[in-house]
Amino acid sequence: MEAVDTYFSSLMYDFVESLEVEGGRSSKTAENYTHYLERFSEFADNPPVDTITSDMIRKYRLWLNRYKNDHEEALSLKTQSYHLIALRGFLQYLAKRDIESLSPNKIELPKTVRKQVTFLHFDEIERLRAQVDASDEAGLRDRAILELLFSSGLRVSELCNLNRDHINTTRREFMVRGKGQKDRPVFISNAAAEHVEQYLDARTDSLTPLFISYSRNAGAVDTSGDYRRLTPRSVQRMISQYARLAGITKHVSPHTMRHSFATDLLMNGADIRSVQTMLGHADISTTQVYTHVTDEHLREIHEKFHSD
């Protein structure tokens, strides 16, 4: 029987590879896990996995908590948790392969406080829409993006990866590949479908991406059009600019539109399991963050109609 190299770094790369091949995780997730696990390997000097102990993990957690980068910036509690999640996943992988090491349940994650969800009320969405000058292609594109984000709950990366032939404005539904390379159905409103059609009707190019940039790279020759594909950063800047023009003081990002989509559904009676599916959340606990928002909404309704 072939001997197994039990040093951390060797088995770590086997684990990360299995995340992509067997777990269906994205290359970005694999890259992040590699980064987190390499940090532990560096800290512990690439130990044989059967020498990992609870005391070693305790010292590692302390090291993470005290870590500072070249700019004297510490790791947030959330980032520290990601390091420990990756390490726990690695130990689970070893246990499945019957390779002796520390039990994964010996790693407890720090309790993190969820950030308050920021969302826009419908009147704020209206003010945001009103800032768009749709007299040219760029304006038609921006209005279509706003409508699509609010009516679909798409992540900004999913929006930017859309091609013309991905979206069906007649049926107003299509499939999108989200995190973990998982497909899910996306449904859009009549308004979103109409604005996407108006934008595409105005386009004179035959480029592949659904949303393209009008700012630079005009001399490029890539016929696929990816050199013109709008980037998530560009969408972020665009939405922030319209929010400022609308006089909205809260931080507004593409993810704020996703939060607004989910909150609007729940406030109008949608069940949380359906919202989980539409958002593409693997775990319902991620979706449950929105119940705090809707609970506050219910309290306001109670105060308004049953305060005596």
UniProtKB/TrEMBL annotation:
Record's subcellular location: Cytoplasm
Question: Which GO annotations describe the biological process of this protein?
Answer: cell division; chromosome segregation; DNA integration; DNA recombination
Q: Where is the Core-binding (CB) domain?
A: 6-95
What organism is listed for this UniProt entry?
Candidatus Mycosynbacter amalyticus
- Could you cite one Gene Ontology molecular function of this protein? DNA binding
Q: Predominant location of this chain?
A: cytoplasm
Entry-linked InterPro entries: CB, DNA_brk_join_enz, Integrase-like_cat_sf, Integrase_catalytic, Integrase_recombinase_N, Integrase_SAM-like_N, Tyrosine_recombinase_XerCD
Limits of the Tyr recombinase domain:
115-303
Give any Gene Ontology cellular component: cytoplasm
Q: Sorted alphabetically, which keywords does the UniProt record give?
A: Cell cycle, Cell division, Chromosome partition, Cytoplasm, DNA integration, DNA recombination, DNA-binding
Name the record gives this protein: Tyrosine-type recombinase/integrase
Q: Which domain of life is it from?
A: Bacteria
Give one Pfam family: Phage_int_SAM_1
